[in-house]
């Protein structure tokens, strides 16, 4: 009988994910990852033939929907949407920052890899983003039917609202446009105010000729 392996595949993936996130693809080495596991690089290569293969496997991990998605799915549509959407945004933004944005940021900063690897299978019918958008769209439909939200197209409204949240994460976590991120609470206040009152002071604007 052969000697049982000292490490499991999942142990390698967890360690690789942490090292890649800390150092980026270019700077991280198989020796770095193996060293944290207390094994040789050859032991890692028994599971993954190249660093690139390890990177893709480590970053393409299953991302479970956060609890706030399920809460939104089950919420009473007659509840004040300002309360519902604020609570949802307050929980969703930290989730996205901690699970999705970190992986995207690592890949955007690497130079040698031309393959963009999302932390989920983008073509899957039930990928987390597709599931999430269906839930948010469902909420907007139910809230519209209950007379709590005035939108012409619930799916378009869901896309617009989620884009506002994704934009916050992208600007601060990926693009890093500011050394001090704008406070989440202040951003959500502005977003909810925009949805509640609108930003335009008139129905029409200057005519474009």
Q: Can you characterise this structure?
A:
- The protein is mainly α and 209 residues long.
- It has helices spanning 9-27, 30-37, 41-45, 51-59, 67-74, 81-109, 128-145, 154-174, 184-197.
Low-confidence stretches: none
In one word, what is the shape?
Answer: elongated
What's the helical proportion of residues?
A: 55-70%
Number of helices: 9
The average pLDDT value, as a whole number, equals 84
Structural class: mainly alpha
For the secondary structure, the number of strands is 0
State Rg: 22 Å
For the record, give the distance between the C-alpha atoms at the N and C termini, rounded to a whole number: 82 Å
Largest sheet: none
> SSE order in H/E notation?
HHHHHHHHH
Strand fraction equals: under 5%
Number of domains: 2
Short description:
This protein has 9 helices and no strands.
Main features:
mainly alpha, Arc Repressor Mutant, subunit A, 9 helices, 209 residues, single chain, 2 domains, 0% strand
Task: Compile the SSE list and pairings.
Layout lengths: L8 H19 L2 H8 L3 H5 L5 H9 L7 H8 L6 H29 L18 H18 L8 H21 L9 H14 L12
Helix pairs in contact: 1-2, 1-4, 1-6, 5-6, 5-7, 6-8, 6-9, 7-8
